[in-house]
Amino acid sequence: MQNKAPKVRHINNPKLETIKPGYKGNKIIQNQFANGDELYNPDFSNVIRWKLSANPQKTEKKADTYTPRLVTDNSFLQAEEDMVVWLGHASFFMRLQGTTFLIDPVLYDLPMIKRRVGLPCAPEELKNIDFVLLSHAHRDHLDIKSLRTVCRHNAGVKVLAPLHAGSLIRSASKHLPYQEAGWYQRYDIVPDHLEVYFVPASHWHRRGLFDMNTVLWGGFIIRTKEQTIYFAGDTGFNGHFEEIQETFGPMDICLMPVGAYKPSFLMQKSHLNPHEAVRAYNVLRGGTFIPMHYGTFDLSDEPASEPVRLLEQIAATGLMSGLKLPAIGEALLLRDLG
């Protein structure tokens, strides 16, 4: 008796433009989103292996008390200049030509994981936000409590999200407007002088027992006539960086994840280490490199300061230019970047 071939289909949002020629949409295998053509189910035995194995850097990690610098100042919310402000982990505030964005806002502790460093302002002070961008639905990127706070204080906010994220967004607010996009799709937003695209990442999804890979993951391209900004989301190293560069051209500003990479047997397929992040940045022909996904939550085995130390060492060799290490809450003016 022959085994049945796995059920395969491709989907996107038919209401949105797909800008990559010939792209059929995101591949779904047996009702799960795939990384390109490959279905990735993280092996739970690796989690058990991680929990039962000794961290070779345990002593070093315990002694490492590093946290990112914090600027306690909400003046960036009233400023008018174009800027990007890191809010810790993978959360950013961004203003572009009068339009404001929050990317992956996580403003509180995670379940069983406390923030190691605070915010530049109270979550309730994040007002006049036009768009919330959600890269994927892991709890350190899509936090329902944070989303509810943003909605409560921003009556006109809209959400730009991946395919099949709608039910989670509705659990935060029944009336919150949102758009779902597949890879290489352009969101339909006003004003039209700004372009926002959803682009590939090499990752996975799970929030509960029975929802493996049911919500898509990815990154964002935010483009004006002057600059192209890339937010990588959570991702392992894969061929999508070349595809993104071929489709959109060089990236003026790259917001790149550099933490939660050890042990590699558990993390390598879904997170970048600093060397891989720089390699991806060079593939993207990046200008400014702004690291994220480090220092805010303790998610992995590397010492807290290791990502920053490695990036500074790599920058010193000349393998990357444009490294910026902003404090949480420090406004980086876009006219000075790229």
UniProtKB/TrEMBL annotation:
Alphabetical list of InterPro entries matching this protein: Metallo-B-lactamas, RibonucZ/Hydroxyglut_hydro
Domain Metallo-beta-lactamase: 99-294
SUPFAM superfamilies from the UniProt entry: Metallo-hydrolase/oxidoreductase (SSF56281)
Gene3D superfamilies xrefs: Ribonuclease Z/Hydroxyacylglutathione hydrolase-like
Superkingdom to which the source organism belongs: Bacteria
Protein name (database record): MBL fold metallo-hydrolase
Organism (species): Pontibacter populi
